[in-house]
Amino acid sequence: MKQTVLVIITLLLASVARGQGGDLKGTVTFTSSRNVYVKFSSTADIRVNDTLFILKESVLIPALLVNNKSSSSCVCSKLGTLEFSVNDEISARVPVKETKKEEPAPVEAEAPAANPEQKALQEEGKSTSRIKDKQKIRARIAVASYSSIFNGGERHRMRYSFNFQGNNINNSRFSTDNYIVFRHTIGEWADVQENINNALKVYSLSVKYQFNEKNSVTLGRKINPKMASVGAIDGLQYEGSFSKSLSYGVIAGSRPRFNDYSFDPSLFQAGGFVGYSKTGEKLQTQMTLGLLDQFNSGSTDRRFLYFQSNTDVAKNLNVFTSMELDTYQKVNGEASSKPELTNLFISARYRFSKKLNATLSYDARKNIIYYESYKSFIDQLIENESRQGLRLNVSYHPWKLITFGVNGSVRFQQTTVSNFKNLNCFANINRLPGIRANLSLNANILRTGFVNSNIYSARLSRDFFKGKLNMETYFRYVQYKYSSEYKTQQNVIGGSVSFNITKKESLFLYAEKTFSGDANNFLLFNTKLMHRF
């Protein structure tokens, strides 16, 4: 515990140091149930396993992980529950290129001319409270089906989603953010009738009013980007700022019921936070410190300090930290005021050169509850077993179109059943000669207290018609050995087609066939049709 606290203090002190780094802007060109495609002017400074960010209310949030790339596009997987739309702006953290220093020109010669009103306010030492009330709306609806056919039966699930983000609606100071999903299994309508929340998931439903540049209030369900790991907040959120760098906020509401994500006023919570943010060409710093009191049926159930930081601490070094320190908690009716570090995640990424970068992370967060998951059993197994613990990612880009990498993660606990070791190696080759496709080779070895697995895979993908059509095919060879000495082998073959029918309509098709030695074969077939407004 003392060593952990010492590491945290060292990182917190380092996070106020100045570093050099810049943002490379890109845009989402296509989304599917598995991947998000992001286009940049160039991906020369982006590496496989890099983290991409999305800007939410002046805060950069880790959002995507780069799985593959070409000279101008990245194929990414989602890091959280955020949803993406075509033309969403994405940021990549890249080193600032060295330039020859020149004598600075007088500020007056470079500053743009101000209009008479701005000039008068500046001369009087006043600041304007005007905000840009230009309407910007992004919306989409999608219908998807997920079918699985196996020995002796079949299952078909339907999913309908609505996503609407309206900033400054009708050029006013009102904005809204909504993401609602309704899903059900055909032939199992009784589950929906028993509890509508088994099918209906409201991930966000909020209205925001911007009083001026410094003050705003939000009502409804919304995840606060400055306290992202706390989760959704049902109620009132007020945010203000003392200056461009210092902000504060107050939260009062409830948290969703954990078993079905429904509204539950008995789970009241209240608190506040202060934040520091500074963004420039050579400095990126964002920190939040908060205190939250959570209730259960009228009495305090948990009280904790929250800290989040995303900072360049040195040249080519970025550190992201998220932690929760409980100062009071009640478990099974027994209260305790002993400070306890209940959630901790630290990630440090260092770019040695344009060809080599490494990321070291430590994850001691609690298990994640997924209300929806469409990952295969293989992907779920690897993710669940290898998320917590110490992880090292190294990516090497020796040539323009080739990238190699290795990921290693370990976890040691008192009970050997919870221990694990995971090694993942990959090679990505872009624009193969003759077919101009991208090839990914991957080998994953997992060792846990109850299951061992060896997974080898190859994936081939290519864009057609200037990115309007993407086709992908892959093969996996899987070996399992459980603690009961039961062994099995699987051959998995699959493919997908993503097609932008028009600028507003997209179609996605996905199929996967699993061949098992015990004749327990599976067929998955998914479809998705999306319309953007």
Describe this structure in words.
With 533 residues, the chain is mainly beta. The chain has a domain at 22-94: Elongation Factor Tu (Ef-tu), domain 3. Helices cover 8% and strands 58% of the residues. It has helices at residues 2-14, 107-110, 116-123, 189-194, 377-386, and strands spanning 22-31, 36-40, 51-56, 59-69, 73-78, 89-94, 136-150, 153-167, 174-185, 200-210, 216-223, 232-241, 246-254, 268-279, 284-296, 299-314, 317-331, 334-336, 340-351, 356-363, 389-399, 402-411, 420-429, 438-448, 451-464, 469-482, 487-500, 505-516, 522-532. The chain has a 22-stranded antiparallel beta barrel. Strands 1-2-5-4-3-6 form a 6-stranded antiparallel beta barrel. The N and C termini lie far apart (51 Å). Residues 1-21 and 96-130 have low confidence and may be disordered.
